[in-house]
Amino acid sequence: MSSLLETAANPENLRRVAIDPVSRVEGHGKVTILLDDKNKVHQVRLHIVEFRGFEKFIQGRPYWEVPVMVQRLCGICPVSHHLAASKALDAIVGAKHLTPTAEKIRRLMHYGQILQSHALHFFHLCSPDLLFGFDSDVSKRNIVGIAEKYPETARRGILLRKFGQEVIRHTAGKRVHGTGSVPGGVNKSLSVPERDELLKDIYQMVAWSREAVHMVKELHHKNPELYNSFGAFRANYMSMVGFDGSLDLYHGTLRARDANGNILFDGVDYQNYTQLIEEEVKNWSYMKFPYLKSLGKEKGWYRVGPLSRVQNCDFISTPLAEIERREFMAYSGVMPMHAPLGYHWARMIEMLHAAETIKDLLHDDDITGSDLIATGERCFEGVGVIEAPRGTLIHHYRVDENDLITMCNLIVSTTHNNQAMNEAVRRVAQQYLHGHEITEGLLNHIEVAVRAFDPCLSCATHALGKMPLEIEVLNEAGERLSSLSRSGDGTLS
Amino acid sequence: MSQNKQASFTLDGKTIPYAEGQTIIQAAMAAGEYIPHLCFNPEFKPHGSCKLCTVKANGRQTASCTQQPQPGMVVESDTTEINDERRALLQMLFVEGNHFCPSCEKSGNCQLQATAYELNMMSPHFDQFFPDRPVDASHPEYLLDFNRCILCSLCVRASRDVDGKNVFALSGRGIKSHLIVNAKSGRLADTDFTGYDKAAHVCPVGVILKKRVGFTVPIGSRSFDEKPISATPHPTVKGA
Question: Out of 3.40.50.670, 1.10.645.10, 1.20.1250.20, 3.40.50.2300, which CATH number does the structure's domain A54-419 have?
C-alpha cells in the first residue's frame, strides 16, 4: 500500500520540516514533510512514535483480568477497550445473550463514553481551529481562548463531558478505568438515586448536543468551499451497524462501502473479521496499516469513525439525531461525503444520538435490575467489536484450558484510519503548503486534518515485537555511523 | 500490681489493657487501636517476618506481633521515624514482586495496597526488580499468581496448622525466597489443595485467587473502599 507523496524519490536532497508532537490529539505522533528549494512538497508522513506492548504482556494472564487491564491502553476512551474486551470474553464464557440489565448498563456506559469523548474532542481540541480559523493567533487557538471569547460554548463543552463522565462513574465505578463490565455481564446496575441524579441533567444535555450539531452545520453552510474540499480524498469506509441497519455503536454486524457508497460487504459476523481485514506494517511508523483483503493493499484501505458510521447506517433510532442525519445526507448529495472536516458534523450527530440514547435508557426499568451475569458453554476463542468514539475497535483473544490468555490481537480505531489520515495530510500539504513559505499557520492546517479524525495515538500503538524499527547511531555531527532495521516480520537487516 | 486492676501499657500515649499471654498487637487490636501489619493474622501463631508491625517498646525496636507487653511499658507506633521505616519496607515489597494494582483483581481488598495507602506511600521509590514469575493456573478452581507474593507465610501456616496438609512452603533463602507447592511437578493441580482449605482464604494479597470471579465486586463495595485499613476491624480475617 503506497500513495503519492508517501516516499520521495531523493529524500537526501530535501529539506525536512517536522511537526513534533502533533498537538491537541490523544497520544504522541509527528508529521514530517520533505520540501525542495522551491518549497514543493515531495513527501508527507504521519508517524506514530510511541509503542506500548499490550498484545504481548496480556499473554499468560487470566482472562477475567483482561477487560480491566487492556483499558489501560487509553485514558480518554478506556470504556471502549473495557467493553470490547468484555464482549470478546462473553463469547469465551459462553454468554451468547446478556441479561437485559447487563446489556443496558453496558450500553449506558458506552454512550456515556461517546458523549464525553465527542464533547472533549469538539469543544476542547477542535473548536479553536473552527471558530478562530486555522491560521489564527496561535496564542489564542486553544480552549482558554475559547473560554475567553465564547464562554458559553466552553462551559457547555466542559459540562457535557462531565455528564458523560458521571454516566461512566455510575456504571463502571470510576470516571476513568472502572471495573463495571465483566465477562458475561456487569458487576453493578444503577441504584435509583444514581439514576435520578443523571435524569436531572439529561434533558439539558440533549438540548446542548442538538445545538452543537447546529453550530457545526452552520460552519459547513457558511464556508462550503473550505469544508467540502479541505484535505478531501475518496475512500472506502467501514463500521458496525445494528442488526436492523441502524446506527448502533454497541453491537451489530460489519458493513463496508466503497467510495461511491456501494456496499462491499454487509451483515458480516465480526467473529469472522480475520477473513475481511489484513494488516500491513511499514518501517516508518509503529502503527499498522489495515486493509480489506478482498481489495488488496493498494485499494483496500478504508476509513472508520463518525463520518463512516453516519453514512453507513440506514437510519438512527433516536428522533432528533435522525433528523440531523437526514439533513447531513441531503447536504452531501448522491455521493458520500469524503471531506475530513465532515467528521466534526457527523461526530456531533453521534453526540446527540448518545445523549438521546442515555435519556431513553434512564427511563428503562431494566437499568436498576439485579440479574447481572449470564453464563453458557465455555469456548476458547472470542472476538469483541465495538464502535468506539474514534471508530471500529476489534479485540480478539484465545484462552487455554487453564483460563490463561494465549493470543491477543487488537485493531483499534485509529489504526484503521492510518492510511486515511496519511492521505488527508498529503492532500492538505498539496493544497496549502506546496510552493509556499512554511509558516506556523500553514503547518496547523496539517494538524487540523489529523485532528478531524480524533486519533488516539496511544491506543494505536499497542503491539510489541511486531512493529518495524529503525535504529541509527549518529556521531556528534549528526552523521550516521551505523544502523539496524527490523521489518514487520521480525527480520533484521 | 493489684489483682483487681488489669495490667496495661501505653501505645502512643493511650492506655491499653492486656491479658496475660497477649502480644502488643493483640492487645492493641482488642482495644481498637491499629498497628500496621501484613504477616500477622489473629487466627494464627505470629510469624514476625514482615516487620511492618515494628514498634518501639521502652525505646527499643521490636515486632509487636511477637513481643508481649510489660506493665507500664511505653510503646510508640505512629511516629514519623517508625512510619518512614514501614514505608521503606512496603516500597521494597512492591519492587521485589510485580504489583500492578490497576489491573489486579485484589485491588480494594488487598492489605498490601491498603497499608501503602495508610502509610502514604506515594511511589515505589526503589528500582523495580520485575521478576519473571509465571502464574500457576493448573488447578481447576484456584489460581496462584506468584507475582504478588510477599512471603508472609499465612498460606503455609494455614495449610500446615489448620488444614493439616502442608500444601505450601517457602523455599530458597534471602532474596531468592519464594513460595512453592508440595508437588513434584510444582503445580497446584497436583497437590491435595481444595477450595475448602483455610489456606485458600488467608492470602492478604492477590496470590491465591478463586478463578473466574475477579472483579465481580463493584468499586465502592470492596473491603477498603469506604474506610482505610486502620478503621476496618480485623481486616486480616476478611473473606475467610
Answer: 1.10.645.10
A179/B215 touch (CB, cutoff 8 Å), yes or no? yes
Q: What is the DSSP pairing of strand A236-241 with strand A302-303? A: parallel
Task: Report CA-CA distances (Å) from A414 to A76, A418, A432.
Answer: 13, 6, 25
- Sorted by where each begins, the domain ranges of chain A are 11-49+422-486, 54-419
Cα–Cα dist B48/A357, whole Å: 57
Strands B60-63 and B54-57: antiparallel
Could you give the CA distance from residue A108 to residue A105 in angstroms, rounded to a whole number? 5
Report the alpha-carbon distance of residue B195 to residue B167 in Å, rounded. Answer: 12
In chain B, residues with a C-beta closer than 8 Å to the C-beta of A403 are: 137, 143, 211-212
What cell numbers appear for A293 in the block? Answer: 483483503
Contact list, A173 vs chain B (CB under 8 Å): 218-220
User: Which run of H or of E encompasses A165?
Assistant: helix A151-172
Cα A21 to the chain's mean position, in Å?
Answer: 19
The answer to whether A348 and A220 are in contact (CB under 8 A) is no
Which among A455, A240, A249 is positioned nearest to A354, based on CA atoms?
A: A249
What pLDDT digit, counting tens, does each position of A169-224 carry?
999 999 999 999 999 999 999 999 999 999 999 999 999 999 999 999 999 999 99
- Per-residue pLDDT tens over the stretch A45-86: 887 655 667 888 899 999 999 999 999 888 778 999 999 999
First-residue to last-residue Cα distance in chain B = 39
CATH code for B83-219? 3.30.70.20
